[in-house]
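Summarise what follows for lecture notes:
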Amino acid sequence: MKDKKANMITAIGVLQIIGGVLLILLFGAIHLFSRILALIASNPEPGSPILLIISTIAGLLVIWRGYLNYKLASRFRRIKRAMGESISIKLSDLEGKLFWKRRKLLKALQKQLSSGLWEDAYIDKANDVFVLGYNPSVVASDTGDATLDELLGTANGFIRDMTIAGHSIEDKELKAQVETLTEIAGQIYSYIKLNPEKAGHVRRLSNYFLPTTAALLIKYTQMQSQSVKTDSMNEAMQKIAEVIPTLVDVFKKQLDAIYSEKAMDVDVEIEVLQNMVGM
């Protein structure tokens, strides 16, 4: 979030408003002075008011532009205060806190995003969430190695799915665990990008754990979004929540393994996940 940029936009807006007012007053004063001179000189035609009309219109346009800039920065600050320390918030929650309608909220967010007031943020309309700081730390398709690019591109897609799912999760403890997962995954594949000779060390993670984790989290958010949940849905959500700490441990082991060049022993975790996938 760019507070300095918001302050700058506010300052520009105030200056534009002041400038527009001064422009109108200046040419208004000039026109009034010319009329006074005309009256003194007994001139029945003091001069055309066209310049005054043009300056007034120009001044009003500058004032309007200043108002829009001021409003842009002001709404940014209101949304920031409403979010607090959260890195994501449901659009419906923002509507309630700001007392805005959805159309007004989306319009304000889109203007702020296009103005660069939010860093690495996006609107996830599918999950009704505004998300800050999306950065999976994996950049694909630029290494020059087709095999490595494919590996990183696939991993990036799964990490993105995990990130979006994590921002939608309502349970705070589970959300924090998923954020840890995505952060570790980003570290792993960022390291692989810089050390492609170790790509073979993450084969099991890439082919099994990463896609399975993404699938489980997507399944969790889909069930969470249902207004009416069956007992089996609640049970499935609980099982997924219980297996996430195991996955955090797996990802940590993988991170340690690529640095220590040791094989990752996760047979027990695979058995646990196989049971989960069969839900």
